[in-house]
Amino acid sequence: MTGPPRAEIGVFGGSGFSSLLDDGREIDIETPYGPPSGSVTVGEIAGRRVAFLPRHGARHDYPPHMINYRANVWAMKELGVRWVLGPCASGSLQPSVDVGHFVLCDQFVDRTSGRADTFYDGPDTVHVSAADPFSPVLREVLADACRALGIPVHTTGTVVVVQGPRLSTRAESRWYSSMGWEVINMTAYPEGYLARELELCYANISLVTDHDVGLQGHEGIEPASVEQILSVLRSNNARLRALIEATVPRIPEVDDPHCAGALSGARI
How much is the pTM? Predict the structure, then answer.
C-alpha cells in the first residue's frame, strides 16, 4: 500500500481561485484538527511537486471566520510541503496601492477574534517569533517573477486581517489607513503564522480588488460595485496563475533559514 504523493510547494487558493493543477491527483487528508477545507490536489509545475488547496473549499463553502486554518496548514505539512504561497483578495488602504496591484506583505496586524491560531495549546509552551512573519526569500522570488511578468507589485506592506464576515466601518477603515497600512483582508491570519509554527516558509500575496471604504472621497476613488470587484478578481486570478507558474521553478531547493529555524529557542 502506497502513501499519498509528496509535494514540496503548497498553494492556498483564495476567493475565485479554486483550481490550479489540471492533471493533479486529489487526496483526502485526515488531521488532528479535523478535516481541511477539502481535498488537496497534488501535481507538477515545471517539474516541481505542488499541492493545491482552496482555503474556502471547492464551492466557497467556508467564509473566512469558519475556515479550519490549522487543518489546512497541517495537511500541507503532512504532504511534505516546505514552501507555501498564500494569495488572497484584498482591499487597498492607500491611494498609491491601486486596484490590480499585488502586495507582497512583510507584516500583518491581527484584528481577528476567536480563531484557533496555534498548534501549541499545551503541555508544551512555545512562543514562535512573529517579528518578521513572512519568508524574505520567498517574497524576493515572487517579486522577481512579478517584475518579469510586468505585474505591478509592492514588495513590502502591512496587511490588516479582520474577522469577517463583517466589512469595516468608515471609521475603522480610516484608522487603518491613517496608520500607513497598505491592504486589508480576512484570511492572511492565522494561516501564515500557523505555517511559521510548523517551520514552513510562507508568503502572503495580497491581490487588490478594490479601495476600502475609508478611501472613498479621495480624488479619483469611487465606491466599487460587485460587478467591478468580480471583474478585477477574474483578472487578478488569471495573472496569479501566471505568477505561480513563473515562481515555482524559481523557488530554491534549500530552505530559508528564517522559516526552517522558527522553533529554535521558542520552547519554554
Answer: 0.93
